[in-house]
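Provenance

Sequences were taken from public entries as deposited. Structures were produced by running a predictor on each sequence independently, with no templates supplied. The record for AMP-binding enzyme C-terminal domain-containing protein from Postia placenta MAD-698-R-SB12 is shown for reference.
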Amino acid sequence: LQSYNGRIPTNLCGSFVLRTCAARISHHSAIRRSTRGDLFVEVAPGAYVSRGRNDDWIKSSTALRCDTKAIEDNVRATCGDLVAECIVVGNGRPSPVVFVEALVAMDAEKLRREIVRRTRQFHARRYVHERITSARMVVVVGRGTLPRTATKGNIRRRVVEDMFKVQLDAIFAS
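Predicted structure for AMP-binding enzyme C-terminal domain-containing protein:
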């Protein structure tokens, strides 16, 4: 990793600095959003950090952006023994909602509470609009329920939002 002033900023640990991108990207606005949907932040002159893909971010109802990939990665890391797969949705909503496919047979309400408990410290450090702090913001679905792409098997975030629109509306109506 290319360091910034000899050290890597703590908020960027785990990210990769991509110095070679600068030579390939000719206009400064392209650094933030490349044509392939990759997002970068310039942390020092000529040093760039990947911030994921554009479709890994959702916009809340307050027009603030939420890094869904960070939340999903945290759920996988802290709940890997409980969760087979997960996806965070909530475009245009006050806060994100995580959909999980359970790895083990467990009462859905108990699983929801356990996910919130295990991820509590992570969410305490997030902005308010990025937090999942209530079990009602965790939706447990059966294995294989979340729609995937035919080629790579990635979960399709927008299709999940459309598929579960009524349930999402109910979560935020209460």
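The longest strand covers residues 38-44.
Residues 10-54 form one domain.
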